[in-house]
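tool_call: predict_structure(chain=1)
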Amino acid sequence: MLDRFLRRLAYGADLTAEDRACLNRLLRQTRVVEPRQQLVAEGDAVQRVLVMLEGWACRSKLLADGQRLITDLILPGDISHVQTSLLGYADHSVTTLSAGLIAEINPAEIAEAVQGRPGIAQAFRWSSLQTDSILRQWLINNGRRLAAPRLAHLICEIQARLQAVGVPVEDGFPWPLRQEEFADAAGLTPVHVNRSIRVLRDDGLIVLKQRWMHVPDPERLAALCDFKPDYLHLAPARAMVMR
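tool_result:
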């Protein structure tokens, strides 16, 4: 479980054995979470940085009329609120989508960890930049793609992100998103999502059954939505550490 976090950060920096040991020590405070459990409410004081060790969560914003938009998914190995901790309060909510395991880190411990450890500092910078890059891609996806390619792109992204941290995906992977949550992530109505999923199923592009997603031919699905994983920045880390 801890390996997912280290695998992800290793895409951003060439971590030494000492760096990895330091990061492992940061994850000593863990707790089990339930599905649909609110971890952070918009406006809360940020006292902990969250690391998703197992399970899925999401970042979201609510409108005054109760409509919700999911702005990002937090998957195994992802870290949340590193930058938000500098602001003092959360400008979005974080809610689990499945049961899971999270680690909670005092922001002061992260500040201490990066002192004299340029590899860790670069890894955390990369993590924040990757999150920004994903947000930009979501803006393009939800603002310009039609419904079926929009959902296909999100499925391709999730599969790529899971595979990058060592989650087996060849025979499928858990899919905890309910239809209304998929809609909130894609900026569509649940009815529109239902119709678009049916299109993808009928074309043999996905198999979705009992909260399990299988993509029989990833290249065909990627071609439908012009998915290119470059924006995930999952190339091997550069040997030279930025200072």
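agent: Residues 239-243 have pLDDT under 50 and may be disordered. Proceeding to next step.
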